[in-house]
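Standup notes
- HV: blocked on the assembly model, inputs below
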Amino acid sequence: MTEVLTPAPAAEVTVAHGRGELPPWRLLLRRPTFIVGAAILLFWVVCAIFGHMIAPQDPLAQQLLATNKPPSGAHWFGTDQLGRDVFSRVIVGARSILVISFFATLLGTVAGTALGLAMGYLGGVVDMIGGRIVEAVLALPLVVVAFLFVVAVGPSPLTIIIVIGLVFTPLIARTVRSAVLVERQQDYLSSARLLGENRTYIMFVEVLPNVLPTVLVEFTVRLGYAIFAIASLSFLGFGVQPPTPDWGADIYANYGVLPAGYWWMTLFPALAIASLVIAINLVTDSIEQVLSS
Amino acid sequence: MPYLPIFGAGYPASLNRTSQPVQAGLSSRFEPGSPAGLSRLRAGRVYGAFTRDLAATARAHYASPSHGIRLRRSLVLAKGAGWVAVYILKRLGLALVTLWLLSLIVFFACQVLPGDPGRAILGNLASPSAVAALDHQLGVDRPLVEQYWTWITGILHGDFGTSTQFRAPVEPYISAALVNSLKLAALAFVIVVPLGIVGGVVAALNYGKAADRVISVAGLSATTVPEFVSGIVVIVVFGVALKVLPVSASAGAGASAGSQLKHLILPAIPLILVLFGYIARMARAGTIEALNSDYARTATLKGLRRPVVIRRHILRNSLLPTITVIATQTGYLIGGLVIVETLFNYQGIGNLIYQAAKSKDFPMLAAGVLTIGIVYMVATLIADILYTVLNPRLRVGGAE
């Protein structure tokens, strides 16, 4: 009888999300949307890491005799108001947004998963208090709150990571909590309790591996929103500060001359942001569909 | 067991899944891509008994207008009405608590703003004693709690404070900006609501086919591209390359309604794009759930033609969550307005708080954010009440 009550190995339960014959990652590679999204994402990650080597010119070098030049053979994406090469700035600019959004989402996911586990598994007072906080945060327009705090504390990459991470925490906690509530009905948890395991051990060793697919989907979903929010903050002038190349900040610096016909300084960074968020969402959509099939 | 989709906490796991879509609706702009649609589908499958209940109610409502059933329905309504009132009161109470939290956040966030109001007004050349005197006159040298009390009681009496950048009461600025923003938001809504619903329903009716994939992926992409990005693309295409539409949103004082509308078309497009994906997603998920339901199968099996099944049985059930989601999207819209109004230089509430934040105009910023909070709260409240009043499920649940 005790044999039957022994908790099932966590890894097996995780694998059970696939269709049976193939592991999830093989199913992913069969989806064209995933391939396209992952390829674009990979391109920008390479740019973020090796940007300075790929860029044909120094993204910070100002050529004051060649300002506002339209796209040409020498400057593929033209030059901006200070004569800097827009193409190089777009390539190198991938770094700041990818790094900030990745760490902001990571912070939100780790904190949110811990909070969600506690709310879902411990229940009672923890769940009550957590639930009120989640509701209060959800009731506020998030962009406005993030904006307010970044304005108050002053823009710096660390501030943005913390603000976006904190804003995401309750949102992720809510999703994790729902997944934990489903797990709580499973036999392996009663078994673990009967074996006398303590709560922390059960939460992090028994429950956590089983809600990891949910956490993974949540992470990719939030990564898309993080890029959206961080690019928006940069566009408002409260993100990465000049002269660091950054897509949102470059748009902020140059959108004033857009009606005058200088479209290349804003359009190319804008398209870069669009391709990045679309790529992440294609990947997210594919992961969601594979995990839910 | 009352079915309360609004409260995340304290409900058994079996109901929690079902409640997710509504929660997603309640949340703000950051929600569109969450797997709410998925859980909605799962909910339909897993809780068959629940759906059958719904099917019975739906039949009582729409399909068979026989006298007996009508009588039963009115009884249910009479029993449910009291519960709905309690529920609305509860929501109202929660909204007030949240507003109070918001006022705290706004006030204390603004207090951290670097800069001295007295110095900001008098300029760099003023003597320290003059600055101190003005600070005292403005009350900014008093303890924070006392300042908060003065501020919040002032607001309760309709006094939102004096702008430091315009040196005038903030209310006229706020109300004028709010009216401008509402014009822009209304234009976006009028276009996107029918578009999103039709897109979602068409995708659901072609579930899994090419049309579905195209609408879903395009909707998802449109939703996730920041407004200023799509805004720049439309400016470049329509304003700079084709020169068919004005790039600035402001038509100038005394412009005709037609001219104002023309100036608002380009700014509305980014808002429409973001909302389209979300509304289409909800409409699609709701329609798919209804298509898979037992009552849809019953209607088909009893020999009704497909258009009739879709019109009478599917759409009436599937669009209910969508309608309320649309109402809650005003929250998102406000976040989007800050960006769009800045990009198109439009004198709306978003641009107003942006300018206030840049010039450290605390009373204007606080009043603007609080106004946004109130608008958002009212919209969410209306959405929740609409959902309760329109949803037969909740009425029956409350009567039991």
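- HV (later): unblocked. The mean pLDDT of chain B is 72. Chain B has 16 helices and two strands.
- Next: hand off to the docking folks.
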